[in-house]
Write a structure and sequence with these properties.
The chain has 216 residues and is α+β, with helices and mostly antiparallel strands. It has one domain. Helix content is 13%, strand content 29%. It has 2 helices and 14 strands. The strands form 4 sheets. Strands 2, 3, 9, 10, 11 and 13 form a 6-stranded antiparallel beta sheet that branches. The longest helix is centred in the C-terminal third of the chain and has 16 residues.
Length: 216
């Protein structure tokens, strides 16, 4: 197939390549969901070859919510404390998700300094009645041929977890992307030069246009 839509779900509580469990010392640091050494990983960084073009269409991370200090240890299914009551007033991991192309972060502050990215409260995963998205990744992020890309998660709510105490679903990240290969990658590059959004519909439209022009 020349075009294929793919999704990747990362969970910090899953077995890692190194076998190390994510602990409190990793909170506050940006971790790659692909090769960061924690959670489920792949064996090499995500990258495009000289004949590939990738379009990142959606990113999301576990949401967080404010709670009243002293209330239940969970809120809408999110961990809020390890004792008998909430001590921080925050439920969830206070997580952010960032896209990195080569060595450059995609989301920046107004002064062009990189930040932690999109908060889970704006783009939650999983999405539910309790947590609805208010952020759309538009325009899509384009990864050009030969570039390396990454999705990085930064979480701060370390006092709700102890080393190795993360349960499945406590800290997750999701990314959806479409990979164009071979002739479709060439068409994707052409659409980019023309200022047209790269998506399967426009790629098919360009193919039909070529076929019609040859027929005429």
């Amino acid at each position: 197939m020349s075009m294929r839509s793919q999704v990747y779900e990362w969970d910090a509580a899953r077995t890692t390549v190194s076998g190390s469990a994510m602990g409190t010392t990793q909170f506050g640091s940006a971790l790659s969901i692909f090769v960061g050494g924690y959670g489920n990983n792949i064996t090499k960084p995500a990258e495009t070859t000289a004949t590939q073009f990738c379009v990142i269409e959606d990113i999301a991370v576990t949401p967080s919510a404010f709670t009243q200090s002293g209330s239940s240890v969970t809120y809408r299914g999110l961990p809020a404390g390890t004792g008998t009551s909430v001590s921080t007033g925050v439920a969830g991991p206070r997580a952010y998700v960032q896209i990195r192309i080569n060595t450059t972060d995609y989301f920046l502050d107004p002064d062009n300094v990189g930040n932690d990215g999109v908060p889970g409260s704006a783009s939650p995963y999983p999405r539910s009645v309790a947590f609805q998205p208010c952020f759309n990744l538009y325009p899509d992020v384009y990864v050009l041929p030969g570039q390396t890309w990454d999705v990085r998660v930064t979480a701060y709510q370390s006092n709700n977890y102890t080393a190795g105490d993360l349960s499945a679903g406590d800290l997750q990240c999701f990314v959806k992307y479409t990979l164009y290969d071979g002739p479709d990658a060439l068409i994707a590059n052409k659409l980019l030069e023309m200022g047209i959004s790269v998506n399967p519909g426009n790629v098919d439209w360009y193919k039909r246009t070529l076929i019609q022009s040859q027929g005429m």
